[in-house]
Write a structure and sequence with these properties.
The structure holds two protein chains of two kinds.
Chain A lengths: L3 H4 L23 H10 L23 H9 L21 H18 L4 H9 L5 H21 L5 H26 L4 H11 L1 H35 L11 H4 L18 E3 L6 E3 H31 L10 H6 L8 H24 L6 H34 L1 H7 L8 H23 L5 H31 L7 H38 L6 E2 L2 H18 L6 H23 E2 L7 H30 L17 H12 L4 H11 L2 H60 L19 H22 L1
Parallel strand pairs in A: 3-4
Antiparallel strand pairs in A: 1-2
Chain B lengths: L9 H10 L4 H14 L18 H4 L11 H8 L9 H10 L6 H12 L9 H12 L5 H15 L9 H9 L4 H4 L5
The chains are: A mainly alpha, B mainly alpha.
Chain lengths: 760, 187
């Protein structure tokens, strides 16, 4: 399956960049050096059977398909010798132009057999000027049409395929243009990125991404569940008071908003016309939403992982990243100045950290640090558990409390308490940072995140347990609607608290920071806390979609408003972040959090609901059934009676319903995972070996150059007259390496002279 | 398709679309941005491929570039003759490479050229000092700057020849996953 030649395709870079690549038509002297360079510098020779015939640079391809195609053509094109060279007719020396023409022809030859999509990708990824790329494209097209004219009669099939792929590409272009034109908030995001940088931008991108999820869920549930329900309709005998927006109860109880309103009948408008089974529609729609969310989360997570965790074991807290990863998206003058100042501060800190790295802590210091960590963890876990217990106790006693207080607004007490906990406890956790000491500052962020996520997930967990265990089995009429109302209230209270925090809390903090305690200054946007709030809300929405199908719509409106509120608050009350924040690794972590505790928890909850709980007897699409899942069972039974759908029944009974199938599937997946893991280990070893080889090559080069200079010195002393030819111009201003460059140029020039003389 | 634009021929637009990471609409939008920089200089009809260069002084006034510490280097790297004056092809090339759809290798290649101030295909000590000075705007003292440059060379120089080659740079970028999102100019 995965053999040695797959190994060939990875990170093998051979140095060949000739000096003086810039289009300086005047520097003729450096030109003869170009051809010699490639033959003199060492190449990574046959490691695992790689046969390097020509001194072209191999580089990692992003596209897997193109990789497979390129593997069989020995000359992988990109970064070949001819990048940014002027028009070939202008080259003076015959040997260089010959090689560049050859290189280009080989490039064209390797491009022609590719599929058009891969060809376009390969052309786009070339590091050449636009003129050269266009010329290349024209030449490839001409060659291709010449070839296709020859085989025209034989392959009308391929012609068909070509025109189909062309049409498909055009469609894709039109679609992407359409999507770009309706893309939300492009300008606003540009302004935010310009003033605050990439890290704060990642929060707003995450918000926009969640909004897309909710829009999709809303469209699906609205079209398949709510609209059919509108056509059937029911009566609403309750009165409308304004309090419904907060409590979700009252008038809203008997609307399409909640599960209880939906009919369990099969909707039929004309006798003998199409029928629409509401039960099946309900369960399949919710399942479809969740499945699509699952796959898109999975693919996003995989994509982020692939881009950002190539070498997770190399933790570079080094300075090189600070220097080379300047944020080009920042465009405001003040923001740029501030960023420069912050960068200087960070560089200074980094320098002092590196200088202090060798200071080892004494045993007693280590023990104190460890015990402080331990105490902090115990306290934070204890606080989280205490909050959960309090919430459970409150929820249990909520019913008697409600009976004793007649005010309909009293149902808001539980959501109010939960939101207060979500507001206060994370800030309490942040205070631990004053006491705890971390060697690596990034650990602090991760520890804080883990504590917060533990708190939020355990609160949701305890509430789910309460709902599924107590509410569902308490014998209430229409318990699903009750749960839906609870979730709606939680969501709304959370939204109200966020608004209050943005309008009041941050505003007050700014007043305090600017007027009273001016040393504090403006605050920085706490990305982690805000993202966790988004994840919390989204978890609630996912759980609640089953009980309250309009919840994605409410969350859509909420997110929309939150975007503008946060944006305004950001512009007024915050300053750009002072430390580089590693946005992409954080985003990977956040999407992982969204997937792993959040989404899988939702799946577990809904699975328990559907398989273990008894629907209420009087309301909703599943009334009267012993379990929710029985709707599927009865559907399969009805299908098995009609002969044309027996394949569905077969799939259900033998694939979905059978244990053996899942056992075999799991076994296969585990085997594949194990194999991939072993391959990754092997590649890590190879990376290390190649790295060592590069270092050895460098040492060899140094050694040879020294030897050569010694030889030259002795020759010079012996023959002072014949050596004036052997100096070439040195162009680099760096004085440290001029001698080495001279020697290197000498080496190249002598080699090229030696090469040319046998030819002459 | 029903496009009513008269700036480019159909083939030209297709070529641009295939050679950059932009769609048709974005290419037209970029053309109008380019034209706005120098309305008297840039003709509205490119079907005859006119040879027009917008001088660097005007390019440097674009809001996306005007406060960037590296704007001169960016313009020099992408321009025809290395002097910062850009034709439309250079302009499209520049924003295509700096867009979010360009792959990491391509961006790393051009980032390397931008940081290579003396164009010798290596980032040597002098190049690093220039980079750090531009980044910190005189906040660091000269010893701090040289200390920083030494540390960078220590960390990133794989073959220990005292300067960074393209491979060293690419290797280092592999360990900096933020690079893709920071080496990005939104237009």
């Amino acid at each position: 399956m995965l053999s040695d030649d797959q190994v060939n395709e990875i990170i093998i870079n051979v140095e060949n960049v000739p000096p003086g690549v810039q289009n300086h038509r005047s520097s003729n002297l450096s030109v003869p050096a170009k051809s010699g360079v490639n033959s003199s510098f060492g190449m990574v020779s046959s490691v695992s059977g790689i046969d390097v015939k020509d001194p072209h640079v191999y580089s990692r391809r992003n596209d897997r398909k193109a990789k497979q195609l390129l593997r069989f053509s020995p000359l992988n094109e990109s970064f070949s010798q001819t990048h940014h060279s002027p028009d070939l007719v202008d080259m003076d020396t015959p040997c260089t132009s010959h090689e560049s023409i050859q290189g280009r022809q080989k490039l064209i030859a390797s491009l022609i057999p590719m599929a058009s999509r891969d060809r376009i990708k390969a052309i786009r990824n070339q590091p050449r000027t636009m003129e050269e790329k266009r010329k290349l494209r024209r030449m490839v097209d001409r060659e291709k049409s010449k070839q296709s004219r020859r085989i025209f009669e034989l392959n009308c099939c391929t012609q068909c395929l070509n025109s189909i792929s062309l049409a498909y590409r055009r469609c894709k272009n039109i679609l992407s243009e359409l999507l770009n034109s309706i893309s939300l908030w492009q300008k606003t995001l540009k302004i935010i990125g310009g003033k605050f940088g990439t890290s704060v931008l990642s929060y707003f991108n995450f918000l926009r991404w969640l909004l897309k999820f909710n829009i999709f869920s809303f469209i699906v549930t609205f079209s398949f569940i709510t609209i059919p329900q509108f056509t059937v309709g029911g009566n609403n005998a309750l009165q409308f008071t304004g309090l419904e927006f907060f409590t979700g109860a009252g008038y809203f109880t008997d609307t399409v908003m909640y599960y209880g309103f939906y009919t369990n009948s099969t909707i039929r408008h004309q006798s003998g016309g199409a029928s629409y089974d509401m039960q099946l529609a309900y369960i399949f729609t919710v399942a479809a939403c969740l499945v699509i969310c699952f796959f898109s989360l999975l693919f996003s997570m995989a994509r982020y992982f692939r881009n950002n965790f190539i070498n997770p074991h190399i933790y570079s807290r080094g300075i090189a990243k600070l220097i080379f990863c300047w944020d080009f998206t920042i465009t405001h003058e003040k923001a740029v100045k501030l960023k420069q100042k912050n960068l200087s501060t960070e560089i200074r800190e980094n320098l002092s950290e590196i200088l202090q790295e060798n200071i080892k802590l004494t045993l007693s210091q280590q023990l104190t640090h460890l015990s402080v960590h331990l105490v902090a963890w115990v306290v934070s876990t204890g606080v989280a558990i205490a909050c959960c217990v309090a919430v459970y106790y409150l929820a249990e006693n909520n019913l008697e409390f409600l009976k004793s207080h007649q005010n309909p607004g009293a149902v808001l007490l539980l959501p109010f308490v939960v939101s207060c906990i979500n507001l206060a406890v994370p800030r309490f956790y942040s205070m631990f940072g004053l006491v705890e000491h971390f060697e690596v500052p990034r650990q602090e962020v991760y520890v804080l995140l883990i504590r917060n996520i533990f708190l939020k997930i355990s609160i949701i967990g305890i509430l789910c347990y309460y709902w599924l265990h107590n509410v569902a089995l308490a014998g209430e009429e229409c318990w699903e609607t009750l749960i839906g109302q609870e979730i709606y209230r939680l969501l709304l209270m959370d939204f109200v608290f966020s608004l209050a925090d943005s309008f009041l809390g941050e505003f007050l903090r700014r007043i305090i920071g600017m007027q009273f305690i001016t040393s504090l200054g403006l605050q920085e946007f706490d990305i982690a806390r805000n993202v966790l709030e988004l994840i919390y809300a989204q978890t609630l929405v996912w759980i609640g979609t089953f009980f309250c199908p309009l919840l994605p719509f409410i969350q859509m409106i909420t997110l929309f408003i939150m975007f503008y509120v946060k944006n305004i608050s950001l512009m007024m009350n915050f300053q750009p972040p002072s430390k580089a924040w590693r946005a992409s690794q954080m985003m990977t972590f956040f999407i992982f959090l969204l997937f792993f505790p959040s989404f899988t928890g939702v799946l577990c909850t809904l699975a328990i609901t559907i398989w273990r709980l008894k629907p209420s007897a009087d309301c909703g699409p599943f009334r009267g059934l012993p379990f929710f899942i029985h709707s599927i069972y009865s559907w399969i039974d009805t299908l098995s009676k009609s002969p044309s759908y027996l394949w569905v029944v077969w799939i259900y009974r033998n694939l979905i319903g059978s244990v053996h199938f899942f056992f075999i599937l799991t076994l296969i997946v585990l085997i594949i995972t194990y194999l991939y893991w072993q391959i990754t280990e092997g590649r890590k070893i190879m990376i290390r070996l190649l790295h060592e080889q590069i270092i050895n090559e460098g040492k060899d080069k140094m050694f040879l150059i020294e030897k050569l200079t010694k030889l030259q010195d002795t020759e010079r002393r012996a023959n002072p007259s014949s050596l004036t030819l052997e100096r070439t111009d040195v162009e680099e201003p760096a004085p440290l390496h001029s001698r080495e460059h001279e020697a290197a140029h000498d080496l190249r020039f002598r080699r090229s002279v030696q090469e040319n003389s046998p030819k002459a | 398709m029903g496009n009513k634009q008269t700036v480019f021929t159909h083939e030209q637009l297709e070529e641009y679309q295939d050679c950059t990471f932009f769609t048709r609409k974005e290419i037209m939008r970029l053309f109008y941005r380019y034209q706005d920089l120098a309305p008297q200089l840039v003709p509205l009809d490119y079907t005859s491929c006119p040879d027009v260069k917008v001088p660097y002084e005007l390019i440097g006034t674009m809001p996306e570039l005007k406060d960037n510490p590296f704007r001169l280097r960016i313009a020099q790297v992408f321009s025809e003759d290395g002097d910062g004056h850009m034709t439309l092809n250079n302009f499209l090339d520049m924003f295509s490479v700096m867009s979010e759809m360009a792959p990491r290798d391509l961006k790393a290649y051009y980032a390397f050229k931008i940081y290579d101030f003396n164009n010798d295909d290596y980032i040597c000590m002098w190049d690093l000092e220039q980079t750090v000075t531009k980044l910190t705007r005189g906040e660091l003292s000269a010893e701090e700057v040289s200390l920083v440059c030494e540390k960078v060379l220590d960390e990133a120089d794989g073959d220990h020849d005292g300067r960074l080659s393209l491979e060293d740079f690419q290797n280092m970028i592999l360990r900096a996953p933020d690079f893709l999102s920071t080496f990005h100019i939104r237009i």
